[in-house]
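Box 4.2: Ligand-aware structure prediction
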Amino acid sequence: MKFDYPENVHFKCLRCALCCGDTEKRERKIFFTKIEANHIKQRTSMQSEEFAEEIKGCEPYVYKMKKTKKGKCIFLKNNSCSIYRIRPLICRFYPFELRETKSNRHVFAYTNECPGIGEGPLLTKRFFETLFKRLIKTLNKNSHTM
Ligand code: SF4
């Protein structure tokens, strides 16, 4: 599959954790698949009800991450992700997302809310290819279990 991506975008994660919870302007929804939930269960020895809420109508995403009373992801500890190596695909994508146009093209978009946009190196096609391949891999794995 082919995709379009923004050129001339610089990005570096500043580890500010803004994307790990709600802000005054928006509610952060961290969706994930059944396989992603199983990985988290295995690595943390938690039951899915402890960290996930079931959702409908967003397949292949069937869970939403629970948040603290302050609106932060429950796995955010001391402002860093305690499940970083197995974090959901949605977290890996941020501040980017893949949209599908009416003509069935896939286009990477990004949000300027992330303070890391404009920082760091110029992103190349390879960066977006890696994200794209991760998405395909996650969706393929999930389709074999549904
Ligand atoms: S908001 Fe942007 S800079 Fe801050 S932690 Fe998330 S990805 Fe990194």
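In the box above, the bound molecule is iron/sulfur cluster. The mean pLDDT is 94.
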